[in-house]
Each structure stands twice: as C-alpha cells, then as structure tokens.
C-alpha cells in the first residue's frame, strides 16, 4: 500500500498538446528566443523561455481564408507540426520553436489545409470588445473617443442590454446622459444600432488584442 500511494503521489499528468503530438508522430518542441539561446545551458534550460510566449495568440483561418478563432501559440505550432496547417503570415518578433528535425518561427496567421464546417449561429453575442469595434471606438453621441458602454434607454427605465440599445460612449457624455432619454436631452445617435453579422465578428467579440496582420481577414469591424 505504501508503494502504491508513493507512486500516486509522484504521478504527473501529460499536457493535452503533448499527448496529441505523440499520437500524431510530432516531435518534442522547444522554444528559443534571442536571449534564451545565448543563456541556454545546464543552469538555464530552454524551457524557461516558455512563459514569455505562452500568451501569444495566432489567428486560425479556414482553408477558405475565413477566420475561425485565435489559438494559443503552442496549439498553432502543434497544428503546423502535424501537417494540418500552414503559415500565412510570419511574425518577425516571435520566438523560434524547434525540434531535432524541424523548426519554425511562431507565426501570426495560419491556415488549415482541410476545410472545417462551422455551425451557423445567426446572432452574434454582444461583448464590450465587439461593441467597441462596431462603433469604431467612437462615442455614439458626440464622436469623441469612446471609453465606456451606455444604454440608450437606461436599464432603470426598461432598456435592454442588447445590440439595439447599447452604444460606445465617452465618459463626459455618459455622465451627462445618466438615466435620461435622448428625447429629454435633445440628442441623436450618429448611426443606426444594428447587430453585426459575419464570421469575423465572433472572433472580435472574444479577442481583446488584435495583431496588425489579422486585419485583412477580419473585415471592416476590426478597422
């Protein structure tokens, strides 16, 4: 019993990406940056560089160049190692990932080799990020730089939290409007409030930071 408990105590779980790489025949990966390549050695393993790039995201495109999602860089590299995706845009500032027989610089955009069918959903979920993109980061009332989200019909007066009732708003306008209606202030909206449509809007709704090389694939909403 003691030996069995000891074995359980020292058991380590294998990361999902590592298991999938082993099954597919992919090579073990390491990361090298300019700084870590010089310091790598017995006292500074290459793996210490991982936290510096693990939060990097890579845009994944369907074979039709339709944007699908923003992947963690490690997952993107695994797809490329397994021969399931190819680099579309390289990132000169990204680190180099390599194995004994293969190496690649972490890209900013990759494209699947085979088509993936995406379930159709008519309604795009409204998030703060997507709303800001829809209104181009400008106040719906005065056109200044938007910093907050405002309900056109205040929630205290029955307004809904929806695409048709929410706008990007600057702090001064938000403060002045408070819980008043536009008719009470004599204000008008700069544009009609409509829900956005298109596959790229799902990515805009869930991704905060967008790499410049992603823009051609994300439509006007990302501009």
TrEMBL record:
Pfam family, one: HNH_5
Keyword terms: Endonuclease, Hydrolase, Nuclease
Annotated SMART domains: HNHc
A single GO molecular function term of this UniProt record: endonuclease activity
Ranges where the HNH nuclease domain occurs: 126-175
PANTHER family noted in UniProt: OS07G0170200 PROTEIN, SLL1193 PROTEIN
Protein name: HNH endonuclease
Organism: Rhodococcus tibetensis
């Amino acid at each position: 019993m003691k030996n069995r408990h000891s074995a359980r105590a020292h058991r380590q779980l294998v990361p999902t990406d590592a298991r999938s790489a082993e099954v597919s025949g992919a090579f073990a990966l390491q990361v090298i940056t300019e700084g870590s390549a010089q310091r790598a050695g017995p006292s500074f393993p290459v793996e210490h560089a991982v936290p510096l790039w693990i939060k990097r995201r890579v845009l994944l495109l369907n074979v039709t160049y339709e944007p699908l999602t923003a992947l963690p860089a490690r997952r993107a590299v695994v797809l490329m190692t397994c021969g399931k995706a190819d680099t579309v845009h390289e990132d000169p500032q990204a680190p180099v990932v390599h194995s004994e027989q293969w190496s690649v610089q972490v890209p900013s955009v990759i494209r699947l080799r085979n088509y993936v069918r995406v379930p159709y959903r008519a309604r795009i979920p409204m998030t703060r990020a997507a709303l800001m993109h829809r209104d181009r980061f400008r106040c719906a009332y005065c056109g200044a730089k938007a910093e907050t989200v405002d309900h056109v019909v205040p929630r205290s007066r029955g307004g809904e939290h929806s695409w048709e009732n929410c706008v990007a708003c600057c702090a001064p306008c938000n403060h002045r409007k408070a819980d008043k209606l536009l008719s009470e202030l004599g204000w008008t909206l700069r544009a009609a409030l409509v829900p956005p449509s298109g596959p790229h809007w799902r990515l805009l709704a869930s991704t905060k930071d967008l790499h410049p090389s992603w823009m051609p694939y994300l439509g006007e909403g990302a501009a």
